[in-house]
Amino acid sequence: MITLKRLTQPPRRPWFTLRRRRPQVFAVFSYRFDAHLVPDLLANIEPIVDGWVAFDDRAATGVFSSEAGRRHILLQEARKAGADWILAVDPDERFEAGVRSRIRRLMAASGRVAWGFRFREMYTPTTYRVDGIWGKKIRYCLFTMFDPAERTDTGLHDLWFPRDGGFQTRHCDLDLYHLKMIAPARRLARRDLYNFLDPNRADQPIGYDYLAEERDAAFETIPRNRLYHPAHVDDGGLW
């Protein structure tokens, strides 16, 4: 089931205008086992976006439903709603508070652009891992709207936008926090799920065992000027 919510009034389209209309940015996400995290996700993104589109995947019966299929539907609905930009996110992710004041400047970029956020894998609600690959992760989650038919990728970890679609990838000085790695049991479950879905490492050559490896782990605490809202209280569940 698809849910669409508009938070701002759609821009008027007069016959002529001396001022360019404000671009519309819509968040897109799907949820299943993490449905209980959606209220806090909405509290995090609603100050940032003009609306959002959600895919309720709780009726799925397989271990993992088609990610490519869900993304295609979400992008289609956002485009029909008038989105100029897409902010792709998951229920277990939170943007730092600074995105609210910076997003319009990022959206001022011309042409096809995808902005990369530093992807912080949390090990406590306020601490993330920074050693090795952990400190280098980038998530391209803010990008200009395109025709969803252009996106033909089907792999587990494909980009939201087409790789051959002429997008410029840029990095912004902003953080996106991933909450799923906080509990040790979830780290193990995540490793096992992806090893099951991609046993030959076709979608990720590095594999997935590293998700549960903690040798030589190093951590940093979120700086006070980069906190996210609302604060997360971990329930220890697997979601």
Briefly summarize what is shown.
The chain is of the alpha/beta class and 239 residues long. Helices cover 18% and strands 26% of the residues.
Q: Main β-sheet, in a few words?
A: 10 strands, mixed
What's the count of strands?
A: 10
| Helical segment count | 4
Shape: globular
**Euclidean distance between termini CA atoms:** 20 Å
Q: Give average pLDDT, whole number.
A: 92
β-strand percent reads 25-35%
Q: List the secondary-structure elements in sequence, H or E.
A: EEHEHEEHEEEEHE
Round the Cα radius of gyration to an integer and report it: 18 Å
Helix content: 10-25%
Q: Which residue ranges are poorly predicted, with pLDDT under 50 across at least 5 consecutive positions?
A: 14-19
Structural class by SSE content? alpha/beta
